[in-house]
Amino acid sequence: MKTITVSNQKGGVGKTATVVNLAGYLSREHNQSVLVMDLDTQGNASWSLADSLLNVSAGEVLLKDCFDVRSWRDSCSRSLSSGIAVVAADSVLADIDSYDIKTIVTRMTAFLSEVGDMGVDIVLIDTPPSLGKALTSALLVSDYVICPIELEAYSLQGVGKLQNVISNIRKYNKNLQVLGLLPSMVDNRNKRHREQLALITESYPSLVIRHSIGLRSSIADALSEKTFLGDIKKSSARKAKQEFSELASWIFEAISEEGKNGTV
Question: Given the DSSP bridges, would you call strands 84-88 and 2-6 parallel, antiparallel or unpaired?
């Protein structure tokens, strides 16, 4: 089982769209059993994937002493039969920074171990746009991190901060690997976006993922309609489908090759 955290300390960069659509494409096109863990109190991923919710929330898993990992097994098995299961965000997560991080990480590790034993192939973790204990804990238990970025002037500053965070996390989680920076909501008609993409690619050639995601209304439509992007029939969705399909294939191959060769 591979655990991938989708992270950026800035909001509105497409984290949830990335999580939801990767879950769909990895499940549908690569026959992967996917568990989504929503650690963002906004709960947008949970809302868009409402048909796949488990009978347990992230707050219960991480913060409640009485949580019994056995109690959700039947619900998880039913959801996974369709390829995706979701541990929803809840209001309890708002208090996560008041809890001991060692306890949070211990509980998350135990939960993921149970998930792996049930046959889950990939865990995708959606995180809040801040460096609190939710994001830190997710990175401490993950194999990979992927970082959606917007193509604005301050993106380079954010990349530098991200590198510092990853460097600090690796002191405790030596297995954490950066899949890359994902240019998100890219408007190729926008000169500023084209220039920033060129600049970031030049500055971080080994980090920028070549499969960028465009600024496309069909992505927002699918999220709001709680519909898998691949099922959208509008011709205007064709490019969005292609982009996410190619991104999911690239990620699947990257984490598969790592398992074979030890490197990405």
Answer: unpaired
Q: List pLDDT tens digits, range 27-58.
A: 999 999 999 999 999 999 999 999 999 888 99
Backbone angles phi, psi at 161, to 5 degrees: -65, -40
Partners of 126 in beta bridges: 6, 38
Structure tokens at 167: 């460097």
Backbone dihedral region of 154: left (phi > 0), alpha (psi from -120 to 50 degrees) or beta?
A: alpha
State how far the Cα of 28 lies from the Cα of 208, in Å rounded to an integer: 26
- Report yes or no: 140 and 171 within 8 Å, Cβ to Cβ: no
Residue 96: CB atoms within 10 A of its CB come to: 22
Checking if the pLDDT of 262 tops 60, the result is no
State the alpha helices, DSSP H only, in 31-172.
Answer: 44-48, 58-63, 73-80, 101-117, 133-141, 155-169
Q: Where are the domains of the chain?
A: 2-255
Q: Does domain 2-255 have CATH number 3.40.50.300?
A: yes
pLDDT band at 203 (very low <50, low <70, confident <90, very high): confident
